[in-house]
Each structure stands twice: as structure tokens, then as C-alpha cells.
Specification:
Rossmann fold; single chain; binds zinc ion; globular; six-stranded parallel β-sheet; alpha/beta; about 15% strand; 8 helices
Length: about 270
């Protein structure tokens, strides 16, 4: 039995034995759009943008179409494996990904928080207000424009009803203008859930989390594992898998890309 397989068996035992399972998903799961070539209508729309730079604004909306239509591939496989591993447990998942791919597996969205936002809602790109608008209707218009052959130039940029500036997806790509209201309610549920972990057997599983936003998953997870006497902690990451000294007695490191790990071992 190889070393990673041994650690995986240990992880499965810890999950089975745990009262609660806390999962963090990070940078290794970010969508890289490498499969977009499989969608000819999206490729020809992107070519249209190449020719006419006035259509540059449509690129995020075309990427959103890709996220909606691309329902297979390595990320979805990895999420499905993870779901099978924890589906019957009292779990909570926190992710810094904004692509929403995690929603393609059957995770309970009441047990999921996406503090960096996603592509479900639109907001004012200038943040003149904190209002959020469903992204679905405009996405349908984009779909029509590229499938019916009327072309992207038939579309008009969606604008903020309050100030007239363009709308943007409600996620961290808005940088300092990011409207954080979108995830706040779920964040409260997450915080409440975390408060109930003290003195319970918790399995903490950190998957592909790097150091771009360490205060969202990496540091808080280390703290949860450190202060909980009954915690086990698994860190799976291709390059940043080292365990801090404080956690060396209850932490397990796996030096492997977490997406590949779940695809290779998750279904066993
Ligand atoms: Zn506005």
C-alpha cells in the first residue's frame, strides 16, 4: 500500500469517527477555463471579441456561460468524490473559489459558504449601492445572442439602475468595490456552526489552500485544530503541505494536488 493510500485510509477513519467535518477548498480548485475549446459557440464568440474590442466587456459573461454549460471534467469529478466522502456527516464547506463549480456536486448549499462570491449575482461595479441582482436573466440573453447567431453586438451592457455604471459579478474580482452582503447570512451560519465544534470530535480537511487569502481558511483552520483536543487535521496540497509545529501531533500532510488526490483516492 502506498503512503498516500495509507493516509487516505486514515482520513476515511477519522471522517467516519468524527461528529463534525470542516472542509476548506482553495486555489488548487480555481477554474482555469482550459476546457473552453470544447464549446465551439463560446470559441466563436471569443473570436468575435478579438476582432471587435468594443465587445471586451462580454468576456466575463462568456466565461459565466462556460461555467454554466461545463458540467464535467476534473473539478466536478473531484467535488463529487468529496461529496461522497462526507455526505452523511454534519459538515460545513468553505471555499475561496468563485466559479461555483462546487454547486455541480450535490452539496447542501445550507452547509456551504463562498466568502469570495461567485457568479450568481450582479452588483454595481462602482459600488454606488449594496444592491444585488440575479445574473440569470442576462446570462440567458448572452446564450441567445451566441446560439441564434445574432452576435454579441446585439447585447447591451447591463447597467446599475441607480447610477448607470456597468454591473459586474458579485465576487472578489470587484476588488475594493466587492459588495460583501451576498454571503453574510451564510457566513453567520458558518460562524455559529464553528462555535458548536468545541469539545466535539472534528475532522478538519484543508484541500488545495494556498497563501493568497490565508485569513479565510488556512489560519482559522489551524486555530480550530489547535484548540480542539479531539481534532484531526489533514492538509492536502501539491506544494504548501507542510504542517506547523504546533499541529505536528494531530496533523497529516499529503504532498499532492488536492483535485488529483480526490479523483485518484476519493472514490475508494
Ligand atoms: Zn451604481
Amino acid at each position: 500500500m502506498d503512503e498516500i493510500m495509507e493516509k487516505h485510509r486514515l482520513l476515511l477513519d477519522k471522517i467516519a469517527d468524527a461528529d463534525m467535518v470542516l472542509v476548506g477548498i482553495g486555489e488548487e480548485f480555481n477554474e482555469d477555463f482550459s476546457d473552453i475549446g470544447r464549446f465551439p459557440h463560446l470559441m466563436s464568440a471569443l473570436e468575435e471579441v478579438d476582432i471587435n474590442q468594443l465587445l471586451e466587456w462580454t468576456v466575463p459573461f462568456l466565461e459565466h456561460r462556460f461555467l454554466i454549460e461545463h458540467n464535467d471534467g476534473r473539478l466536478v469529478e473531484a467535488y463529487q468524490s468529496l461529496y461522497e466522502m462526507i455526505r452523511d456527516k454534519n459538515y460545513f464547506v468553505i471555499t475561496t473559489c468563485i466559479d461555483g463549480n462546487i454547486r455541480k456536486a450535490a452539496f447542501d448549499t445550507e452547509r456551504l459558504v463562498e466568502p469570495c462570491g461567485n457568479h450568481e449575482m450582479l452588483q454595481c461595479s462602482e459600488k454606488c449601492c449594496n444592491e444585488l441582482y440575479s445574473a440569470g436573466d442576462f446570462s440567458d440573453l448572452v446564450k441567445q445572442a451566441i446560439l441564434d447567431g445574432v452576435g454579441l453586438d446585439s447585447l447591451e451592457i447591463p447597467r446599475c439602475p441607480n447610477c448607470g455604471k456597468p454591473l459586474a459579478y458579485n465576487n472578489i474580482l470587484c476588488e475594493q468595490n466587492y459588495v460583501e452582503d451576498g454571503y453574510q447570512e451564510q457566513w453567520k451560519n458558518y460562524t455559529k456552526w464553528l462555535q458548536t465544534t468545541l469539545n466535539r470530535k472534528i475532522c478538519v480537511l484543508e484541500l488545495g489552500v494556498e497563501l493568497n487569502l490565508p485569513n479565510i481558511i488556512r489560519w482559522p483552520f489551524e486555530k480550530v485544530a489547535f484548540y480542539n483536543q479531539k481534532a484531526s487535521f489533514f492538509r492536502i496540497n501539491a506544494s504548501l503541505y507542510q504542517m506547523t509545529e504546533e499541529l505536528s501531533d494531530k496533523g497529516i500532510s499529503v504532498g499532492m494536488n488536492a483535485v488529483d488526490y480526490l479523483r485518484e483516492y476519493g472514490h475508494l
